[in-house]
Amino acid sequence: MSGSIPFYQKHHRHYDRGYRSLEAESKMSQYQSSSRYTAGSSSFAATRSRGLKVSSHSGLEESRLSPSPKKAKPTYLAVDKENQIIGYVVPIFRGSQEFATGLSDTEEARVRDSATYMARRNLFTSGVEMERSELISRKEAMRESAERISLKKRIHEHEEHFKRMNEDSLMHAPEFVIKPRSHTVWEKQCVRLHCTVSGWPDPRVTWYKNNVAIDPLANPGKYKLESRYNVHSLEINRCDFDDTAQYHVSAANCEGEQSAFASIVVKRFKGDFDESLPAPRHGPVLEYGINFQTHIVDKFGVSFGREGETMSLGCTVIIYPSLHRYQPEVQWYRDDVLLSPSKWIHTHWSGDRATLTLTHLNKEDEGLYTLRVTTKSGYETYSAYVFVRDSDAEVEGAPGAPLDVHCLDANKDYIIVTWKQPAVDGGSAILGYFVDRCEVGTTHWIQCNDTPVKFARFPVTGLVEGRSYVFRVRAVNKSGMSHPSRVSEPVAAMDPADRARMRGTSAPWTGQIIVTEEEPAESIVPGRPRELQVTEATKNYVVLSWKPPGEKGLEGVMYYVEKCVSGTDSWQRVNTEIPVKSPRFALFDLAEGKSYSFRVRCCNAAGVGEPSDPTEATTVGDKLDIPSAPGKVVPTRNTDTSVVVSWEASSDAKELVGYYIEGSILGSNVWEPCNNKPVKATRFICHGLMTGEQYVFRVRAVNAAGLSQFSPESEPVEVKAAIASPTPPYGITVLECVRDSMVLAWKQPTFIGGADITGYFVDYREVIDGVPGKWHEANIKAVSERAYRVSDLHENRKYQFQVRAANMAGVGIPSLPSNTFLCEEWTIAVPGPPHDLQIREVRNDSLVLLWKPPVYQGRDPVNGFYIDIKEADAPEEAWRGVNTKATERTYIKIKNLKEGETYVFRVRAQNKAGVGKTSDVTEPIPALTKLGTKEIVVDVDDDGVISLNFECCDITPDSKFVWSKDYAEITDASRLTTETKGNKSKVVFNSPGEEDIGIYSCLVTHTDGASSSYTLSEEELKRLLEISHDHKFPIIPLKSELAVELMEKGRVRFWLQAAQMSANGKVDYVFNDNVLSQGEKYKMNFDKNTGVIEMVMEALTPEDEGTFTFQLKDGKATNQSSLVLIGDVFKQLQKESEFQRKEWFRKQGPHFIEYLGYEVTPECCVVLKCKVGNMKKETSALWYKDGHEIKSDEHLGFTEGVLKLEIAQISKKDAGVYEVVLKDDRGKDTSTLNLTDQGFKDLMNEVFSFIANSSTPLKTSSTDEGIRLYTFVSYYNDLLQVTWHYKDSAIAFSDRIKSGVVGDQLWLQITEPTEKDMGKYAIEFNDGKGGLRRTVELSGQAFDDAFAEFQRLKAAAIAEKNRARVAGGLPDVVTIQEGKALNLTCNISGNPVPEVTWLKNDREITSDEHCILKFESGKFASFTITAVNTSDSGKYSILVKNKYGTESGDFTVSVFIPEEAGGKKK
To answer: What is the dihedral of CA 812, 813, 817, 823, to 10 degrees?
Structure first.
């Protein structure tokens, strides 16, 4: 079969194969290249084997054996010189056996016989047999010719009948609606010839140059041919002299041929030279024997950037064979203009990847970017569009920046700057533009115009001759100023003549600048300038240009320019000081609206020549008008994110810069620019649109004068991928074979063309001795399944098959011929292979595999299936089973997959005889959950309706949700209802029951396998039914039941809180079955935000005893809560309410916040205190005890609202009734504290508790009498009751064991302790609650130590008691008169009686007559001197001593003489 577009696709007049989505174009081109090669090979093989060609509507040629060959009528088949079908007659014989083959039965037999004859002829060498065979062949050929003539006549009659019955498909010869026009262009420019051709079938168009067909592949990059929508174009890139020729285009179909002619003339600027490099060689490099194959992969797509950002575009380039040092030529183009590296553009080639980096995006960078990789064998290109959006304005509403700023004309004193207006005006009209200049080498920008200019050209003056400048432009509207444009290229303020004489060519060995001038002739006055004309006129300036005088070799010619106001003869010289050198001059400062004429004079050293002819009167003003609005705008579907917009060009537009396109979502009235750089074509692809939305478009034209009005809005178009016919199916296999039929299966096309496949067509052909025959149609009506039984075959013959898929765009090209299958009846006992394996619900660790059972069952029915799995790159030995026990279902969920691993699967069927053939292996599938994958969600709505819901994020406009139960599509609507809206779909259970138990799955078509499943088990169904019942009969949930509480002033509040109620919720308040209403007694409130419902009553009366109920209703949901208030509960609540009411009134005047009470401080002081409120200066607070007022003293206090009375050391006398009275003009409040009897007892117990807690641990000490146990307290009160315990029993006190208190010490004395006193002792403080006990263990070592210390102290006490002592009686000093008697006596104690010794001046004295010493009764010692004299003066001591100790007493005796005393007195 030919790779040309078949007739059923040609019916779609607006369909264009070259205008598809990228995926469709790639798939079709790959397949067509392979199918053409295969079909060509098959055709060649058939020709070699049979030696004949027959003609039919299938594309075969006439037989070469015909003795009188006749040209086939063009109404039947159109074939070009390369045997490619270029047109079809619509076949009306589809399904007719006679006309489908094109040959009679006898002719088919003859063809087979002739093949046998060709083989026999090589075996026989006999001349007679050869002659006989040739005679028979000639006779058969004559008979065949006659039959063919009859057949063609009948075909012609049927064709004429079809024409009459199908007027809409009436064929006609090609006709040029628009013919190509001749062009004259400058060298290195591009030129395009285009024409529009009509005809049916669609003509095949060929372009010729000087009658030689143009082959774009022979000159890569030179020619570009396009055919879209019957518009055909030839584009010639970078024209040169060799492109000057006559071109003609030929259009041919089966009805005839037409041609149209056009000429192209290429002109060259005078003095220019060709700078282009030699073109690279193309085709195979024969001297090396290498033919390179280039593939561009990993391509960049349509890209969007914003001004100021950095963008990188890159592609991976694969060149085969790969040579180590071979470097291809890698070039980047923007809008077919070669890009060179600069500060804005960086290119990089890594050896296998080409990268283009735009370092700082500007709108000038927007355009179609093309990567071209050229090798010695040819080139490959790839293109994609780059869009650049405006950066955010500094001021909201400011316009976008102008673009493409460059120099239009430069002279020594001015430079004319031009630019393009921006597409975005910020919402208000642009008032004009400001031009800034900056001298090269500086960073100082100077604004050139004081007021904005609207015309997109401006002459910049005030420049310094010879210096270079760069320029930028800013737009302004009423909101503010735009960002500045990209800076222009540098340009020098220099006379054009000087610039022309300075050639930039450098001698390669010196780098010297070469300057050339003509040799001057002798001094001759120059003649008149020629062809003076006004080349440009605006309100700001006028530009004149002329040609120098015709004489050659004039010396240094310069020019004077003169002007004259129209209507006068007064000529004024414009450049009076310095004549200009170049034949171009700009005039400024002309009066706008006035008309002027101009003329020019030449001058040199010889003088000033005659003036030129004056120009016509020129009125100063903008001569360029704003273009008219473009015409009708037609949008066309392209991809799911782009639309092709075409429009009618602006009429009579002068100096058109291009067009801006804007798009808007239908109904939004918000317009967004589709391009930010003007396009000159009348067709543009708008990218970046939202899939599924409807857009309208409008276009406006732009030139230097401004932007036109918008075109009329287009018709709405939905953003949706254009549909195409599907690619071929593949993987044709045989599922069953009997004597005269075979069941085929195949796999769905990899690309279905953007529309559902409506069916398949199957063709078959017989293969005899390896030679394929003609194709025959197996089915007239398309089959929807991917399996079909081909009948009417012959047993034991071999066949090949091909399949074509069809959708609403047409029937696609056929698949590659299948393998050759033998038609013989299968007799094997085991089943055939399962088929139509499908994979769904792919997740990271699982997937679902579906299949169809084998058509061939074998000897017994199929009773199960086995599934095999292996990694995609694993060897055949790696196949392993998924299930050990055969499954009867035709689906299985495969779990425990490894995330990211790629797997393949196959299925085998079994019956009683065994396991049959394996199915075809599935395509490799990675175990990965796609981003955005959703699962089926079960939902029960407010009405109790159970539904399964599925949402798909990757839905396309053509997608459909297909619901299945147990992976069989649901067709019974009695149990389930399907609802789909947008990207969500659900199935609703009409009457859920056990019949609905199963696995429910949903598949979304036209997606990358979006699917999910949900298992409805018996337990899950039961749970859902319970939830459904709750939703059908809903109850309003309550956060809290009805409760009652008291508020201030004794008011009673009944309240509850609902968990959730809508704004329409209602509440009924019921008391004893009577509905209550709002009034003075009842205040109702329902806060729907919080769900709090309350009813407040001012007071409770005996009539309010009963049951209170709140009844809630919210839609269908209801609930109620009751509270019973009867008996003691009601009485207690009423009593408390009354109390609260009284309390409220009490608190209106001075009152007690906290009533009178007491507290005990750590120092065991008692403080009576109460907290008061609502006090003022006039309020009095009086203290009373037992009715007697307590006068203010230091014990009363009032701080921070607290009244205090301190009792430092409380005793029984402090018992009594204490009262505090608050009183002022607002009222009186009293607080009483009874501290008598039990009250005083409780207070003392608390004091005792403090005392007990302050006690120290019980300790032991020894005395001379025995052992003492003691503890200290911080304060002791006489009323404190303590109990001493010995071995947990109270101690009975006696003379030997006593207790007492000394200060803050409490002690227990054990006199003369013995071992019987050993044990545990405790002191217990009684505080009226539980008391506090302190214990000590007096036993063991503790007792021994205490007892030993007691013995020691006792002995010391005895010694101290019985030792010798001088009790007293002796003075310290005795002064006595000489001659007097001295008698001193002292008491002596001690047991035994001590010994007494007297000492004088530390020397012992004895008793004599002068000094009498006596010791009487063992107690009294006396010292007597009868008559003292001066020798008795001195220190005397008495020393007493016994066995327990010694003690002495000292005194001094001083004797004086009376005379001495008197003398001293004198």
So the answer is: 50
d(CA 1429, CA 1403): 19
**In what helix (H) or strand (E) does residue 50 lie, and over which residues does it extend?**
helix 22-50
CA pair distance 288, 327, nearest whole angstrom: 15
Mean local confidence (pLDDT), 495-502: 69
Output the CA torsion sign for 438, 443, 444, 450.
Answer: positive
pLDDT exceeding 70 applies to what percent of the chain?
Answer: 85
Question: What percent of the chain has a predicted confidence (pLDDT) above 90?
Answer: 32
Cα–Cα–Cα angle for 848, 853, 856, nearest 5°?
155
Separation CA 122–CA 49 (nearest Å): 13
Residue type at 816?
L
**Distances 96 to 93, 663, 774 between C-alpha atoms, Å:** 5, 52, 15
146 CA to centre of own chain = 76
Q: Which of 1220, 1195, 1197, 1217 is nearest to 1208 (CA)?
A: 1195
867-to-213, 735, 831, 881 alpha-carbon distances in Å: 59, 18, 15, 6
* pLDDT tens digits along 671-717: 999 999 999 999 999 999 998 899 999 999 999 888 999 999 999 99
DSSP helix/strand/coil, 1027: helix
Question: pLDDT digit string (tens) for 576-624?
Answer: 777 887 788 888 778 888 888 999 999 887 888 888 988 888 888 767 7
pLDDT tens by residue, 434-443: 999 999 989 9
Return contacts of 565-571, CB within 8 angstroms, 24+ apart: 565/594, 565/595, 565/596, 566/594, 566/595, 566/596, 566/597, 566/617, 567/595, 571/599, 571/611
Q: State the Cα–Cα distance between residues 1076 and 704, nearest whole angstrom.
A: 83
Reference 179, options 120, 107, 232, 112; nearest CA is 232
Quick one: CA torsion of 1386, 1389, 1392, 1394, rounded to 10 degrees?
-30
Instruction: Report the amino acid identity of residue 691.
Output: T
Cβ contact 296:379 at 8 Å: no
Residue 884: other Cβ atoms inside 10 A: 6
If you average pLDDT over residues 433-459, what whole number do you get? 91
For 1060, the token pair is 């959730």
Amino acid at 288: Y
Rg (CA), the chain: 62
From CA 1206, how far away is CA 1119, in angstroms rounded? 60
Can you tell me whether residue 28 is helix, strand or coil? Answer: helix
Kindly report whether the peptide bond that precedes residue 1392 is cis, defined as omega within 30 degrees of 0.
yes
Pick from 82-86, 133-137, 789-793, 998-1002: least confident: 82-86
Chain mean pLDDT for the chain? 82
For tokens 């959730």, what's the residue?
1060
Statement: residue 647 has pLDDT above 90: yes
Phi, psi values for residue 1299, rounded to 5°: -130, 160
Q: Quick check: 421 and 430 in contact, CB under 8 A?
A: yes
Across the range 1036-1063, mean pLDDT stands at 89
1162 prior amide bond cis, ω within 30: no
Q: How far apart are CA 565 and CA 570, in angstroms?
A: 7
